Amino acid sequence: MRERGAVRTGSRPQSGGRPPARGPVGGILARVPLTTVYVLLLTAVAWWLASQSRAGRARFVRHNSSNVHHMEVGQWWTLFTSGLVVDGVPAWAGIAAVAAALGLAEWRWGSLRAGAVFVAGHVGATLLTEGAMWVMLSTGIPGALSHERDVGISYGLVATVGCLLALGAAPIRYFGLPALALALVVAWALDQQLADAGHLIALGIGVLAAQTGWLRDLPPRPGPPPRDGRRPLDG
Asked: From which residue to which does any coiled coil extend (predicted)?
């Protein structure tokens, strides 16, 4: 007779076994699915734009700019498609910045909160700057353009970085956040472009988001499990 405690071997997998362990890269990507998808979209759009002619790239940017004209004719979808274009910096630099900032935010807060801060910065700063432009056009103030080029990732990026700094340790809050604000003020004073004002607005949105209990009272997320699949003992 076979002993009761004997282990049966064979080709059938044993129940209750450990799931296959993910590699270090797979474990990171599993924690930041939103960042992974967004970075892939930015990379695909940048790769496609690089294959187009200069006129083709200009036409794509023109059709996806979230400016006053597109808002007036009901093309509100440009609020989101404008965030798929890396503009003003090399594509690789912008995508790397998004991967670092949004990835860190998603790692700490989860996909929903990180995405909400990024979208609030992008959409909120766009609406406020374009709203100011609409007021200038309506009142006849010179210098306003209804077909202004307005694309890029920078509003959402600045809001996310500002929120991260505002929720960081004391040295980061006291030195990093004022340094970023000063750099944005200097950029606006030198260039006085619409995007420079939008960056300051996006920073304010990120700092305000950090003051909400939705983020400030968020408990820390647990780290990745040990490599051997065992849970650490309490105490």
From this structure: none
pLDDT tens for each residue of 7-44: 444 445 444 555 555 666 667 777 899 999 999 999 99
CB 158 within 8 A of CB 199: yes
Q: Tell me the pLDDT tens digit for each residue of 70-92.
A: 888 888 999 999 999 998 889 99
Q: What share of the chain is helix, strand, coil (3-state, %, to 5)?
A: 65, 0, 35
- Residue 177, domain extent: 29-216
Contact 152, 88 (CB under 8 A): yes
**Cα(83)–Cα(66) distance, integer angstroms:** 9
Residue closest to 88 by CA, chosen among 165, 145, 158 = 158
CATH number of the domain within which 91 lies: 1.20.1540
